Each structure stands twice: as C-alpha cells, then as structure tokens.
Amino acid sequence: MNRREKLQCLRVTLARMQSVLIAFSGGVDSTFLLKVAQEVLGNRVIAVTAASLTFPSGELEYARRLAKTLGCRHIIIKTSELSDSRFTNNSFQRCYWCKRELFSRLITLAKKYNLNYVLDGSHYGDIGDFRPGMRAARELKISSPLKEVGFTKEEIRSLSRGMGLPTWNRPSLACLASRFPYGVKITKEDLIRVDKAEKILRTLGMRYVRVRHYNSRLARIEVLQEDISKLVRKSVRQRIINELKNLGYMYVTVDLQGYRTGSLNKTSQR
C-alpha cells in the first residue's frame, strides 16, 4: 500500500475501535496518531502524557500546548519508575518495566473513562530495533495501529507535513534513561545532569543531540555528522567543555560516528 492507502486503512481501523486513549508524548508518531484519531472519533479520544524526570525538560509543556491546539482532551499523569529498582538498575529489560507501569496506568484510565482501546505510537520501523517495551505492550494488549497498518517513519513525517502538523520534522524523542549504558545506575541527579547537558548543546544550534552518560566523570556527545565540525570550533568547544564540567563531567568526548538513535543497543545482549 502507498501512504494514502495506509492512511485510509488507519481511519477505518480507528473507526472500528469507536473510542481510544492514546499514549501521547508530543513526538512525531503519537501526534500523527492523535490527529487522525481526533478527525475520526472526535470527543471519543483522550490523550495521556506521563510527567517524569525521564522526559526531557520542555517536552511536557510542548505536549500540553500541542494537545490544546489539536482540540483534544489531555490528561497528565505522574509516573514513578525511579522508585522501581528494576528500572533504576538499568538492565537490558529497563524499558519493559517502565512501559509495564505506564501501560498499566493507561489501562486503568481507559476503564475509568469507558474507552475501548489503549493505543501507542509505535510504527513499522520499530520492529527491527531492540525494544523491550514492546513486550509489555503485547502482554497488556496495547494496540499499535501505525505499526499494524505498516507506516514507516518517513511516511508519517510526510503525511504530518501535509496535515500541517508542527511535529513533522521534529527530532525523534527518547526518554533520558536511554542515554545510560545498560548496567549504569539511573538516578534523579544524573537524569537532570544529562537533560541540562543536552539543553546546552541545543542552545548552540544542535537539533539532533544525545549526551551519553557513562558515569559522573565521562560524557559522550552525539550530533549529526555535519554538525561535528561546529563542535570543535575553538569558542564552541571551550564553552561546551566549561559548561559540562560545571555539571560535574571530567571528560567530554565527541562520537565521530555522529548522532544515531539506539546506539547503546548495539551492546545489548538480547
């Protein structure tokens, strides 16, 4: 199917569901799903966003404004993954425990508001990546209509642009816990440190950025390959060194392979 045919198939799928609750991050995929669901189901849609320290700062408010712009009912809940040692110990199954808690909360909300299905924004391209959270989705019977219809990320971006969604060219979102190599304990203080480090780089014009946190002494920066030359300019380089050292890092490195999602999954033992 081409993307227009997939869009029609998605509309039919949502219409059959009759009412849905959508896990809404404000990212490319969940925004596209919410937009189409809102068009098909109207007020039988509720978007839910989780407030957590694992969410990059500013993203919660962005999701709030976006849901308001779309005219969708929006609920914000607080999650407590940092109180779960199975999450903070950061094993290869970290995402499973995080998603298990989130989806369980969403199922409870869906029942409270008499909604038939809980949806997430996973798409076809997620199938090949290492995503333990998808196991939690399967176990709890969370629906992923974008994945089921076969949408790719590129198709979602293209259709989002045609719909006038401001998210069409946003960088992919990922929780801040994904910046920690497996086995490195996740703490509130280090999540805040990583968030501040990435914010510094974004103020320097780096839209696509990851700061991988190996320990309190070592940070590895990923930006697009074409932006690496900007990082090593003397004035920019010195500012990054100074500001990240003020955050507590002793060693600040740049990954010459550049920005890529899921780079820490390469070391996972599946």
What would you note in describing this structure?
The protein has 270 residues and is of the alpha/beta class. 44% of the residues lie in helices and 13% in strands. The protein is built from eleven helices and seven strands. The protein has helices spanning 3-17, 28-41, 59-70, 85-88, 94-112, 133-139, 145-149, 153-162, 188-203, 228-231, 234-246; strands spanning 20-23, 45-51, 73-78, 117-119, 209-213, 218-223, 251-254. A four-stranded parallel sheet has the order 3-2-1-4, sandwiched between helices. Helix 2 links the parallel strand 1 (20-23) and strand 2 (45-51). It is globular and about 55 Å long. The mean pLDDT is 93.
In short:
The mean pLDDT is 93. The protein is α/β, with parallel strands linked by helices and 270 residues long. 36% of the residues are buried.
Percent strand: 5-15%
Approximate shape: globular
Which value, in Å, is the CA radius of gyration?
19 Å
Helical region count?
11
The helix/strand order is: HEHEHEHHEHHHHEEHHE
Catalogue the unreliable spans.
none
Largest sheet, in brief, is: 4 strands, parallel
**In terms of structural class, how would the helical and strand content be classed?**
alpha/beta
In round numbers, the mean pLDDT is 93
Would you report the number of β strands?
A: 7
Q: Give the neighbour order of strands across the main sheet.
A: 3-2-1-4
Helix content: 40-55%
> Ends: how far apart?
32 Å
List the defining traits of the structure above.
270 residues, alpha/beta, 3-stranded mixed sheet, 11 helices, globular
